[in-house]
Structure formats: structure tokens, C-alpha cells
Write a structure and sequence with these properties.
Pfam families: MFS_1 (PF07690). The chain has 419 residues and is an all-alpha fold. The protein is built from 17 helices and no strands.
């Protein structure tokens, strides 16, 4: 545990991480409250839930990659604190939102601010932490994102039960305001080489800058394969993610049991992130670690799918244990991806490259649920999950020989960067 928190000894990174923690919490704290408002208060149909999901994800696909060109030109500090204070105001406006149409607009703008904040944060990490502490810094960042996806909705639900349906929006706004003050106390977050690059960009065209990010990804095989494989795995996961409630019924869980199943996945993701951060030896061969994780997570998914098909029978604790393993292995694999993204990308391009990576993953996550639901209606949820697991195993096995050949190259690149 001490190894993971070492980057927090560096003052600038400590402020950045604290702000990210509050930002990640704010991204998910209102999740339960918004869906409760749509379903229980306004009693709207599934069509509006789909529209809400699109409003949440669309900015990450369409806005992020293009706006990131300006994120790389502008002060990352300014981008982060401006986006954070806007989200604070939007969170407060949710208290008074009168209808679904205005709600969708607010959610769209709030997600757009998040899509701008994230690439700025990615670029800020390397400017606030020393190179030797970068793997642990990436681990902490990933741990914040993974844990808040679980903790945020849970806290939001608790606040609704105790203080009322608008309380998550108030707490969320307070968190964003505190994060803004933390971000204002950061240094300028610009290296000398980056300042020179920005000064030369006055006469360059937008598309030239945008294509530089794509060109960097295209000509860096390690980065390219990690982005594509992560997006593919995200697509596979979200084929069945929204159908887990039906899987839980097939496994014999009731409503409370479904909550336990989701909590097991969430707890596994948090502890998996901690474990990977505690043993950072994977940084020598991060792609190999990712590939191996795919094989193990695919195997776990396949076994759970067989349980949904009634081919495997077992007590509920077995399925909870497998759900925990699935979360732990899956979350652990995301940290090496974050490390590759940071170590293989110049600071001046971090906004563009990280936005392309994020948009690729988000696009996969947006289109997968509809495809998964259509397939599940034909073959069943259990069969779908078993197939998803088998495909994940196949991808991992397919990538092993390629990654083994790349291993020596990655070692050389890492040594040259002094990591």
C-alpha cells in the first residue's frame, strides 16, 4: 500500500489527485438520482433511458477527440478548473430541472465538460509527478475512476434515502467547488518544450494538429494495439453489462442478490487496482500483462455464462466469488493501459491521444448494449456471456505471440525513457 501512495508525497500531484477524486465522485454521485428522477418521479419509458445514456456518452465520442486539440494548446490547469466550476453550476441546476428535455441538455453539457477535463488531467499527470513514480500515479488515477463508479452511485442512493432526492446534486456541487480550489493552486502545468510548441501553433491549421495525434497513434504500434484491444474488450464487456440483472435471475439471485453481485464486481475492481499498483513489475511488459489478463477474465466470464445456461450449477457464493474475480482481473488490466498511454505519448500530445483512446472505448460502449440485447433475445443471456468470454480468451491467445515478439522492443523503449 505504501508503494501506491508514494506519488502523493509530491505536492502538485497530491492536489491533482484530490481534485480528480472529487471530480470522479461528482461524475457518478448523481447517477442514481438522475435515473430515479426519470423512472420513478417522471415515470418515463425505456426510450428516454436510452436517450439519457446517449447524452452521457456522446460527448466522449464526438466532442472529446476534436476539442482535445485545443486542450493541448491551452493551459491544462485552466481547462480543468473551468470545466469543474461549470459542472458545479450544472449540478445545482439539476435540483430545479422541470422536464426530460432540459435534463438531457444539462447532462449533455456536463458530459462535454467531463470529456474536456479528462484529457487535460491525463496530460497533467506527467507534469505533476516524477517519472519514477508514474506507474503508481497511473494506478491511483485508475483506482479513483474504478472505485467511484461503485462508491458514487452507492453514496447517491444513501443520500436520497436519508436527505431526499435532490441531496446528491448539492453534495456533488460542493465537491466540484472544492476541486476547483485545489486545481487553482496547481502550477501552470506547461513544460518549456510545450510552451514553445504552443507559441508556434498560432498559424497552424486545426486539422493539422488533430491529425498529429492520429499520426502518433498510427505509427506507435505498442500504443495502437493497446488502444484497439482495450476498445474491443470494452465492446465485449458492454454486450452483456446491461443484461447482468437477467443473468442474476438465471443464477438464482433475487433483487438483493443482484445488488450483491454488482457489489462483488465493484469490490473486485477496487482491490484489483490496489493489487496491481502494489506489485508494479508489470511495467516492464504491460502489453503482456494485459493479454494475460484477457485470458483469465475471459475464462471467468465463460464460466459465469455457463452458469447462466444451467450447464454449471453451484451455490450463490461461487457466483459472487467469480464476479469478484471478474472485477479484479478486469480492473487490473486497465492500469497497464493507462501506463502505456502515458509512457508512449509526448506530454504535448497527451490531450489528443488520450481523447482518441477514450472516444474509441466510449463508442464501443455505446453501440454494444443494443447489439448485445438483440443477440440475447435470440440465443439467451447466458449463451451470450459464454460467447463473450470465449472471444476474450481467443483475443488474448491471439495476441500472445505478437506481444512476445514486441517484448524486447518495449523494454528498449522503456529504458530509453528512463523508467
Amino acid at each position: 500500500m505504501k508503494q501506491i501512495i508514494i506519488p502523493l508525497r509530491e505536492r502538485s500531484y497530491r492536489k491533482l489527485f484530490s481534485a480528480q477524486l472529487l471530480s470522479d465522485l461528482g461524475n457518478w454521485l448523481d447517477f442514481t438520482a438522475i435515473y430515479t428522477l426519470v423512472v420513478f418521479s417522471w415515470e418515463l419509458s425505456e426510450m428516454w433511458i436510452a436517450a439519457l445514456t446517449i447524452s452521457l456518452g456522446l460527448p466522449w465520442v464526438l466532442v472529446g477527440p476534436f476539442a482535445s486539440v485545443f486542450v493541448d494548446r491551452w493551459s491544462r490547469k485552466k481547462v480543468m478548473y473551468i470545466c469543474t466550476i461549470i459542472r458545479a453550476m450544472l449540478a445545482l441546476s439539476l435540483i430545479f430541472v422541470p422536464n426530460i428535455h432540459l435534463l438531457l441538455l444539462i447532462v449533455l453539457v456536463k458530459s462535454t465538460c467531463g470529456a474536456l477535463f479528462d484529457p487535460a488531467r491525463q496530460g497533467a499527470i506527467r507534469l505533476t509527478v516524477s517519472e519514477k513514480n508514474l506507474p503508481q500515479a497511473v494506478t491511483l488515477s485508475q483506482l479513483s475512476m474504478n472505485s467511484m463508479k461503485v462508491i458514487g452511485p452507492a453514496i447517491g442512493g444513501t443520500l436520497i434515502a436519508i436527505l431526499g432526492p435532490t441531496s446528491p446534486f448539492i453534495i456533488e456541487a460542493i465537491g466540484f467547488i472544492i476541486a476547483t480550489f485545489l486545481l487553482l493552486r496547481l502550477p501552470s502545468l506547461k513544460s518549456e518544450s510545450e510552451i514553445e510548441t504552443i507559441n508556434r501553433k498560432g498559424n497552424q491549421r486545426f486539422w493539422s494538429d488533430f491529425m498529429q495525434g492520429l499520426h502518433h497513434i498510427h505509427h506507435n504500434f505498442i500504443l495502437k494495439i493497446s488502444i484497439l484491444s482495450t476498445a474491443l474488450v470494452m465492446f465485449i464487456i458492454f454486450l452483456y453489462d446491461g443484461l447482468l440483472v437477467f443473468l442474476s435471475q438465471d443464477l438464482g439471485f433475487n433483487e438483493a442478490g443482484y445488488g450483491l453481485l454488482i457489489s462483488a464486481v465493484g469490490l473486485g475492481s477496487v482491490l484489483g487496482s490496489l493489487l496491481v499498483g502494489y506489485i508494479p513489475r508489470w511495467k516492464k511488459h504491460p502489453l503482456l500483462f494485459m493479454c494475460t489478463s484477457m485470458i483469465f477474465s475471459g475464462t471467468t466470464t465463460f464460466l459465469i455464462g455457463l452458469g447462466g445456461m444451467k450447464f454449471l450449477l453451484g451455490p450463490l457464493m461461487v457466483w459472487l466469488a467469480l464476479a469478484f474475480l471478474l472485477g479484479a482481473i478486469g480492473a487490473g488490466a486497465t492500469i497497464p493501459f493507462g501506463y502505456i498511454l502515458q509512457s508512449q505519448t509526448p506530454s504535448s500530445m497527451m490531450g489528443r491521444v488520450s481523447s482518441v483512446a477514450q472516444s474509441t472505448q466510449t463508442f464501443a460502449m455505446l453501440i454494444a448494449p443494443a447489439i448485445g440485447a438483440g443477440i440475447a433475445e435470440i440465443i439467451g443471456v447466458g449463451f451470450l456471456i459464454a460467447i463473450a468470454g470465449a472471444i476474450t480468451i481467443f483475443i488474448g491467445l491471439l495476441g500472445l505471440p505478437i506481444i512476445v515478439k514486441l517484448k524486447q522492443k518495449l523494454i528498449i523503449v522503456t529504458e530509453q525513457r528512463g523508467m
